[in-house]
Every structure is written in structure tokens, then in C-alpha cells.
Amino acid sequence: MLKVISTLNGFIQPLRSLHIVRCSARRYTLCPFYTHDTLQSIRGYNILQLSLQHYPLNILTSQFMESLTDFFNQIQDRSISADALIIKSSIPMIYSAGLDLTELIINNNFDLDKCENYLTTFESFWLSLYCLDIPVLSLIEGDCLAAGCIIALSTDYRIMSDIDSKMGINATKVGITPPFWVCRLLSQAIGVSRADRAIQLGTVFSPKEALNIQLLDQVVSPKDCQAIALSVAEKFLFVDSLARRTIKLRFREELISELKNRLNSDRNELIRIISSDTTQERIRKLLKITKIV
């Protein structure tokens, strides 16, 4: 069983975790990082539910992101059949704790290259999710922090269970400056002024606080999460698919284009910040605090 407690600056610390990963036979993948089920809705839509299970905290390691990127690309090219996608977690009290900070430790030039490759993988992962033309919903039943929050922001609708959990982008707490596209994502959801303040301070929000600032679309009882997510997905699918896909792309194409034009310069700036002595010290301190014991 996974137990977590809040720690300094809103991060989470695993107390003890021992897991043997098993994938249910009724599911459609033996991938150790996730399972996916097809949910049949009342109207007969093919709604796919993706359950993240990269223990203990759904940390976005390179392999995890590469696996998910491949999965999203298969949905986009119709190799995997899905009318809509619901993204949730199989791990109690955790949606995702964000990036793998061990990938950001830099001691030499080799580590610099490794860090750059990791950030490139993260960008590709995000684009594969953000560019999906089907409706994508986040069903959040636990802490949704840092890059975990970025996943949720990249979806069309965000539902969170009304439990003791937090959501937000707290990267500045370890000295990391989120790239421009992350700032844009958050500002599109909660407004420029609120996003500016939240990212500067690394603020994390309770479900009700997140709902009040429109970081979430709904906060629901834990027992109702699944049914409500299915109902919302059906509402998206009731609209003409071509019209809906066209509108979705139209609202995303400016940010996608700007990201592609600024990829190298933005990534180089982020690496410069990550490799600074102060940021490296903060990352090492956090890794020491949050180690698995």
C-alpha cells in the first residue's frame, strides 16, 4: 500500500512502497506503465480509459513518457480505436508527482546531454497529448503536481475527486522556471494574473480552491467520479466530430506553432537554469528528502 504525506513546499514524500505490477487479463495492454480499458457508453461510444500505474508516484521517467507518447500517437493515427480518452491513475491518492528530478542532476557534459534528451522527450510527450483530436478528460483522484498538473491542463476537461489532495505547478520551489508554453497553458485556464502569481510562488491548490479559479471544471464525490467522467465524454461526442476536431485544433494551433518555433532556444534557457548551482542544490535537497525508505 502506498502512503504519502505532505512535505516542504507542497511536494510529496513516499514513506514506504513495495509493489508487484500485475495487469488484469481483461485489459488491453501488458505495459508496466499503464493499462487501458474500453468503456461502452449508453450511446455506444468507444471511450478509452487510460490508467497510469508507474509506481510509486507516476513520476514521468523517460521510458514512461516514451511509452505514453507511443500510445497517444497510436490513438491519433487510429491504430488504437477510441472516440474519447479518460486519463486517470491506478495509484491511490496520486495522479502524478511530475518530472523525474534524477534526470535533472548535472555533474558533467554527459549529464547535460542527458538532461537535454530528457526535456526533448517531455516536449514530445506533451505535444502528442495536446495534439490529440479526440476529447481527452482528466479524472484526478489524488495529488496532481508540477508536470502532473501540466498533463491535466493539456486535456479538454478536468474532474477532481473531493478528497485531501493538491494540484498545481510548484516548479519554482526547486528553482526551475517553467517554459513559456506551460505558463501559457495555465494562463489560458485561470487567467494571466492568477497564473503569473501561482507560478511565481509555486502555489498548489485544494480541489475546491482549484475549482474556484477554474483550474478544474468539476469537483465530485469519489464514488461519482467514473460516472461523471463518462457522462462528460458523451457530451463531447454528441457534437459533430469533424466540427469538434476542427475547433479543438484551432484553439491549439497557435501555441503548438510557437512551441515548435522556440523549441531550441526555450530548452537551452531551461537547461541553463536547471544547471545553475542554486537549482542543483535545491534538486539534490528535495531528492534527499523524498527518497523511498
From TrEMBL:
Q: Which SUPFAM superfamilies match?
A: ClpP/crotonase (SSF52096)
Q: What Gene Ontology cellular-component terms does the record carry?
A: mitochondrion
Tell me which Gene3D superfamilies the record gives.
2-enoyl-CoA Hydratase, Chain A, domain 1
Q: Which GO terms describe its molecular function?
A: catalytic activity
**What domain of life does the UniProt record list for this protein's source?**
Eukaryota
Question: Which GO biological-process labels does this protein carry?
Answer: fatty acid beta-oxidation
Q: Which PROSITE patterns match?
A: ENOYL_COA_HYDRATASE (PS00166)
Membership in a protein family: Belongs to the enoyl-CoA hydratase/isomerase family.
Name of the protein described by the UniProt record: Uncharacterized protein
Its source organism is Oopsacas minuta
